[in-house]
Write a structure and sequence with these properties.
Blueprint (H helix, E strand, L loop, with lengths): L4 E12 L2 E11 L5 E6 L1 H11 L24 H19 L7 H6 L6 H7 L4 H23 L6 H27 L5 H29 L8 H7 L45 H71 L1
Helix pairs in contact: 5-6, 5-7, 6-7, 7-9
Pfam family, one: PX
GO molecular function, one term: phosphatidylinositol binding
Protein name: Vacuolar SNARE Vam7
């Protein structure tokens, strides 16, 4: 399902046989600027929450506002407004959660049967397509920066970023196919945009790989007992205790008991304090840091490639225009020669 925005801008009241109740106007905004209003009562929110709540083990959804026996949204405007704000926060949190894909939620928002038709009927135009593409690319780059700077360290936030990027890319692919069928853009432009989407998909795959590498817990090469048991009696590896403080810090023992790196590199103040396992862990940390820096350079390199390809396309177009001008000049030269010949004959 394509990314949408949900909000409750206002409420209204209905009356039937002497009974009055409040209706909440849920505004569903699609990425192609299409808007739809869904009308729901508070009891329908309660029914939906009862279906979702058993699956919400992490507490991603806020609690619904409680009912009151002493206040009514029909007569109390302040109470009605506070409930509208609370329900708006609820559906916004629901939109950011995995439960937005549930069939019950789609039915609640009237998206189950007619969402695909609505998105196809009002597919992204050429300008909207480019806007969504740049927005998706910008969000993916921001997610990568947040991941590297540890600002988006929660697994839920990382998966949410991947999910939003996948939905946007799927919408871009389907909209581009529709634009091609409608001949809204030329064949060369379709090829260029398809290549842009392939690169964006590659960036998403690279982000997912980086996310897995950074979230995977660093494991030492082997426990000290295993190293000692698997080595010979004269092995340079010393037994290592399995205390909990060694899981989050490097092994710090005098380097006189270490043989790794002694004969191949100069000792530093950092490595001099480490034993064999500690040096191995330090090397892993350095390699991980280098991989992270290389991953951070990938978007810049890809942008440079896109700029170079755009310049190449522009040069090709300019060369074609120059060829047309040269061809026209040749035609005019031939016409001038014929005209001069005729003037000589008349003279």
């Amino acid at each position: 399902m394509a990314p949408i925005q949900l909000k409750i801008p206002k409420t209204s009241q209905k009356q039937d046989e002497g009974s009055r109740w409040t209706i909440y106007h849920i505004e569903v905004c699609f990425p192609n600027n299409l808007r739809r209003i869904v009308f729901r009562r508070f009891s329908e929110f309660v029914s939906l929450d009862e279906k979702i709540r058993p699956f919400d083990d992490m507490g991603a959804l806020p609690n619904l506002p409680s009912k009151s026996w002493f206040q009514s949204t029909v007569t109390n405007e302040g109470f009605r407004e506070s409930r509208r704000v609370a329900l708006q926060g609820y559906i916004k949190a629901l939109n950011k959660s995995p439960w937005i894909e549930m069939g019950e939620v789609k039915s609640f928002l009237n998206l189950e049967n007619n969402f695909d038709n609505a998105s196809k009927e009002s597919s992204l135009g050429p300008v909207e397509w480019m806007q969504l593409f740049h927005e998706c690319k910008r969000d993916l780059h921001a997610s990568r920066v947040d991941l590297l700077s540890k600002k988006n360290s929660t697994i839920y936030g990382q998966k949410r970023s991947v999910y939003n990027a996948k939905r946007s890319i799927d919408l871009l692919f389907s909209s581009l196919h529709r634009l091609e069928q409608m001949n809204a853009v030329g064949s060369g432009e379709v090829f260029r945009r398809r290549d842009m989407l392939d690169k964006l998909s590659s960036e998403l795959s690279s982000y997912q790989k980086l996310m897995r590498n950074l979230t995977r817990p660093a494991s030492p090469p082997a426990s000290s007992a295993e190293v000692t048991a698997s080595s010979s009696p004269g092995s340079p590896f010393k037994p290592i205790s399995s205390s909990s403080d060694q899981q989050n810090s490097l092994r710090s023992t005098p380097s006189s008991n270490r043989v790794l790196g002694k004969n191949h590199s100069q000792e530093t103040s950092t490595t001099r304090k480490l034993d064999n396992v500690g040096l191995y862990q330090l090397q892993n940390q350095v390699l991980t840091s280098q991989d992270t820096q290389a991953e951070a350079l990938l978007p810049s390199i890809q942008r440079q490639k896109e700029i170079s390809m755009a310049i190449n396309n522009e040069v090709i177009e300019q060369n074609a225009m120059l060829d047309d001008v040269a061809h026209g000049t040749d035609k005019n030269r031939k016409k001038m020669r014929k005209t001069k010949d005729r003037l000589r004959q008349l003279g």
